[in-house]
Amino acid sequence: MEDKVLRKLFLGFIHIHILHHAKESPIFGSWMLEELREHGYSIGPGTLYPILHSMESDGLLTREDRNVEGKIRKYYSITEKGEQILVEAQKKAYELFKEIKD
Amino acid sequence: MEDKVLRKLFLGFIHIHILHHAKESPIFGSWMLEELREHGYSIGPGTLYPILHSMESDGLLTREDRNVEGKIRKYYSITEKGEQILVEAQKKAYELFKEIKD
DNA sequence: TTTTCAATATCGCCCTTCGATATTAATACT
DNA sequence: AGTATTAATATCGAAGGGCGATATTGAAAA
């Protein structure tokens, strides 16, 4: 399957998407899963949640538990360090795009 | 170190760079190492060579041994499948860039 | 033959990804 | 009250990959 090949290429993209959305407004896991799916990234919960945890322990995201309609959700927001990383990613994504666009 | 964090984000970018350059003209390992370094990607030979091997066994690159000034180099060119993957990557890189640019 | 050098390959450790399954906590139903 | 249901999150073991350090290759120079 070339799915495996594509995933290898796009896992970093997924991390960047997460940072981007977490900057716009706090996100939670299953919403992010749906958002990524709409962008054409197929990824399961067993992959996403460990990624969120590692991004938190890497200091890119902070977690806050909220009670929404009786359900507890873990909302993740971007940290200052996360924003710095995102800026780096924006630069690199632009360079990559410029270089391969034609 | 946040180097580890950045590497996680950019490994896919590196794969795409490799595909792009292998399409322009055949590449070999140590040249690619230098090229990536100039683009700001720090990566060692112990990482790059296994990547080239896996991209070959995934059918994205083909290898051809050439004798250059008495030295044997392994030149990698892009395959048809590699070109298809690269097109996918271009689309996704453009979407990513569009989404996070501001 | 020995040294030197550029280029490539391999080693073992550790971490991550993955699909599948389990857990949690609150509501709806009978 | 007890059970089923549901959304959201967490965890499991297997498999694979990244990493730095080290080893190997092959040819030319000394």
Cα-to-Cα separation, first versus last residue of chain A: 27 Å
Helix content of chain A: 55-70%
| Low-pLDDT regions of chain A | none
Q: Which pair of protein chains has the largest interface, and what are the residue counts? A: A-B, 33 and 33 residues
* Secondary-structure class of chain A: alpha+beta
Name the beta content range of chain A: 15-25%
Please write the string of helix (H) and strand (E) elements of chain A. HHHEEH
Count structural domains of chain A: 1
Mean pLDDT of chain A: 91
C-alpha geometry of chain A? globular
Oligomer: homodimer
CATH topology of chain A: Arc Repressor Mutant, subunit A
Biggest sheet descriptor of chain A? 2 strands, antiparallel
The gyration radius over C-alpha positions of chain A equals: 15 Å
What is the tally of helical segments of chain A? 4
Trace the largest sheet of chain A across and list its strands: 1-2
The CATH architecture assignment of chain A turns out to be Orthogonal Bundle
CATH superfamily of chain A: Winged helix-like DNA-binding domain superfamily/Winged helix DNA-binding domain
Primary descriptors:
65% helix; Arc Repressor Mutant, subunit A; homodimer; two-stranded antiparallel ribbon; 102 residues; DNA-binding; alpha+beta
In words, what does this structure look like?
- The structure is a homodimer of 102-residue chains.
- Chain A is of the alpha+beta class.
- The first copy, chain A, has a single domain, classed as Arc Repressor Mutant, subunit A (Orthogonal Bundle), CATH 1.10.10.10.
- In chain A, 65% of the residues lie in helices and 16% in strands.
- Chain A has 4 helices and 2 strands.
- In chain A, helix 1 crosses helix 4.
- The two termini of chain A are 27 Å apart.
- The mean pLDDT of chain A is 91.
- At the A-B interface, helix 1 and helix 4 of A face helix 1 and helix 4 of B.
- The structure holds a DNA duplex (30 and 30 nucleotides).
